[in-house]
Amino acid sequence: MRFSKAYIKTLKETPKEAEIASHKLMLRAGMIKKLASGIYAYLPLGYRTIKKIENIVREEMDRAGAQELLMPVVQPGELWQESGRWDVMGPEMTRLKDRNERDFVLSPTQEEMITAIVRSDISSYKSLPFNLYHIQTKFRDERRPRFGLMRSREFTMKDAYSFHTSQESLDEEFINMRDAYSRVFTRCGLKFRPVDADSGNIGGSGSQEFHVLAESGEDEIIYSDGCSYAANVEAAISKLVNPEKEELKEIELVYTPNCPTIEALANYLDIPLNKTVKALMYKDMGTDEIYMVLIRGDFEVNEVKLKNILNAVAVEMATDEEIEKLGLKKGYIGPYKLPSPVKVIVDLSVPEISNHIVGSHQKDYHYANINYGRDYTADIVADIRKAKAGDDCPYSDGKLHSARGIECGHIFKLGDKYSKAMNATYLDEKGQSHYMLMGCYGLGITRTMAATIEQYNDENGIIWPVSIAPYIVDVIPVNIKNEVQVGLAEKIYNNLQEEKIDVMLDDRDEKPGFKFKDADLIGFPFKVVVGKKADEGVVELKIRRTGETYEVSKDEVVAKIKELMKIY
Amino acid sequence: MRFSKAYIKTLKETPKEAEIASHKLMLRAGMIKKLASGIYAYLPLGYRTIKKIENIVREEMDRAGAQELLMPVVQPGELWQESGRWDVMGPEMTRLKDRNERDFVLSPTQEEMITAIVRSDISSYKSLPFNLYHIQTKFRDERRPRFGLMRSREFTMKDAYSFHTSQESLDEEFINMRDAYSRVFTRCGLKFRPVDADSGNIGGSGSQEFHVLAESGEDEIIYSDGCSYAANVEAAISKLVNPEKEELKEIELVYTPNCPTIEALANYLDIPLNKTVKALMYKDMGTDEIYMVLIRGDFEVNEVKLKNILNAVAVEMATDEEIEKLGLKKGYIGPYKLPSPVKVIVDLSVPEISNHIVGSHQKDYHYANINYGRDYTADIVADIRKAKAGDDCPYSDGKLHSARGIECGHIFKLGDKYSKAMNATYLDEKGQSHYMLMGCYGLGITRTMAATIEQYNDENGIIWPVSIAPYIVDVIPVNIKNEVQVGLAEKIYNNLQEEKIDVMLDDRDEKPGFKFKDADLIGFPFKVVVGKKADEGVVELKIRRTGETYEVSKDEVVAKIKELMKIY
């Protein structure tokens, strides 16, 4: 491509609305154009990278034995009514009516549709298993679209759905997909981590996320230095190290002035935090029921775990008013001598602490020497603890660490959640009917593009990995009026094209500094600068990632670039 | 691909709703799946053909110098308000509101959006001309979706938009695109015709359609046997051959009992039809104004031409009631001594007829010897005549003929219609501002797939051209229990794969007749049948299009297929 013909409009100034590197740089490099909040056009330069990511995904899905189809963007609403998600999905799912007043939705995801297709085609175990995928536009009407392609409303996603007769077959395909995803992100040149994850409202029995590592990532990842364990903080677990047990003592009411927090109380009574228990009040946002949640004083509640245990859509801390209505007193809450019937949820850490202190429902007083089992019990005892950096690894002698990640892929074992709701069955060898088991596998194409820039950028612009760079080489004649320079630049441009290397020739009548700035902003992995030494047949080859520069003879430049393309 | 693993569910019975070959056969071959009226999923087999058509389009658009981008499916409504089409587009444009009650539309077309993008990027003549295209899902809420992918609501289209500083540049790009389209349809293996066309509600100064020829086509095409002239009947013109002029005579009121039609009148008075004039009453469906339309008795009114001349959204024949309200009498309408003010539109043929007869506004009487100019005039004189087979060619000595076609492409010179409405301007060399001139170029990807089947099918199924067949060869071992046959089939399958020829191996444990039926239905261009002569290393090679069969040695089969691939 000749720069003079290319539809590329770079910007000097960063548009005000952009907060993170990928958003700023995609706008500045002329890769995307905002058309409405969270709705972008992918301009020619940006779309080249998207197509390259799509092709890598397509190749690896095909290699893994999945078959590509294309499902529509506009889905019949009745499928969502069948699955029960019509009422569960909030305003992020855009609903519309056709000219005959029938309900439709803009695809936020395709579990319902693929299940409807497969149930109408498949009746026998002989046709199973298989995996169908598509790469399609999706729409989610985010409450707060932001960060450019990171959280846009319209975006491109690859989603795959597999169908099975047994859990073993599903487990196998899950590993097959995990491996395919690892190949995809590796081929995109990315540092990434597959992590255990919460399944969210998709449902099912197990899931993993693929996170591209970047400081700006919205998600916290916990990982072990002793083994391969890694998880989204939402799902992460750590080894529970308990204090030593003591002999049980008699309950006492103790005076604890000005100790409304667990830290103040531990400090006043001179007890280590890991021998205290704190009580928190949570509300199930679906049912409005309020729960008392107990956890060791030095731990935090993982609200995602709590939500899952309560089978709730969401949980939030109860308000002071709601707490008072139950006859409880903020700062002095406890499970002993409850003034009204409240369900109690207890973290696994709590039964291990002997003689702990709890609120007495009156200001400035606590009960001491309270013991789980003897003095109170719980409706649920479960792991609701937030794992954090510094905790012990649950699977090795290692320690846990924390990193930031961008979720670019998510694979799920759905089990029979959708096949049951939508009656997708098959007949086995004996003619008996069963629900199919399903897996689903999502990969954000446009988000992966943004995540790549978050991982690879500097103050001058983007630094594309070779495999997904819109163009790999930028050939720049320093003086567009110098025939020798222009001639040599054209020759190198043609040679690279013959080798099927995506190359740009910056034939614009602009100052070299201006062209270099554009080159760095757009992020070509390599620049070939054809300057004064063109007379001698020598050019400069610059590596964007490292800043290294080589003087290379014109006859070697293509070979040198091919060599470097294997590294970057 | 192994048939046993492929997601292909063929049907013996034709689904009732399907009326035309492509719809029936795509459903029966398991290429598409209906999810709602006019909304289909493209199953793996069908999507392979779609991707092949897309790739041909992409290659030819790139070769023509166009640059690919991707614009969103969900468009801000305000762009359509700006262009003025928000109010013009009927219910076929689906409107929706986001969670903040802002107006959006599902893309029926993208003139507004591309103009919005370009006006924000381009300010100088130096950046022009260019041509941007995308291949994207579109949605049009058809009143009567039918014929499968031929008239579906959600479909895939390539649309391109070019921007220019001069009419010459636009004209040049129009020809460039016409050539690119010809290459696309040629590479798809189709018989097609570029024809002059009406511009419809897209607007602009000139347009051509690309029709794939097929008996089942919805459109009538008029073409010349004397030159390359061809046009959609909506836009077609023919040479006007006038009767000889006569000396003007005095007006007479003549008794014409029982002659309410022009044929009856001509018969009764023994005048040739080409010396009569008929009067018709039309209504502009936008303004409700009613017009009198006069045309020679042996001609038909082309309502599209009439609509364009009136600048109307649509025209329809006025009802008897509407005619009577104007004081006119059906069967006795005429422009002479009009009882109320009605605008008169006259076809070019009318002023050429001397001494013709017109209605007298009273039953059983007509005025004879009426002459245009002397006895009445018109508000508009224009070509509103329908050209038909048998007419003389307007550009050569040839005759016109008629054929049926399927409109798969449409290219337009838009001029400044959108740039003016949406203020897309550039500065010229002197710093003066001008509106950009635009062209737009659509090509229906999924419709081209359906049109191909309309052109290529027989009673047994589809007959794919090699270039867009989902698979080119079907290798069928006759007896799946015979090791020699299976071994040889596997070998040929592997050899073809090594040559990157898309091949299916029908490894299913089914009777050969069953497999042959599937092969013919799906439409593989070539079958390799590995039967009894496998022992001798000989197989049968069948050509789907011609029914020809060759006996070929195992070592020659790949070479023979490669040779045949150049022909079919």
Automatic annotation (TrEMBL), chains A, B:
What's the domain of life for this entry? Bacteria
Q: What is its main location?
A: cytoplasm
The keyword tRNA-binding belongs to this UniProt entry's keyword annotation: no
Q: Which SUPFAM superfamilies does this entry report, sorted A to Z? A: Class II aaRS ABD-related (SSF52954), Class II aaRS and biotin synthetases (SSF55681), YbaK/ProRS associated domain (SSF55826)
- Please name the Gene3D superfamilies in this protein's record: Anticodon-binding domain, Bira Bifunctional Protein, Domain 2
One family from Pfam that matches here is tRNA_edit
> Which named protein is this?
Proline--tRNA ligase
What is the organism field in this record?
Fusobacterium simiae
For this protein's source organism, the top of the classification is: Bacteria, Fusobacteriati, Fusobacteriota, Fusobacteriia, Fusobacteriales
Gene giving rise to this polypeptide: proS
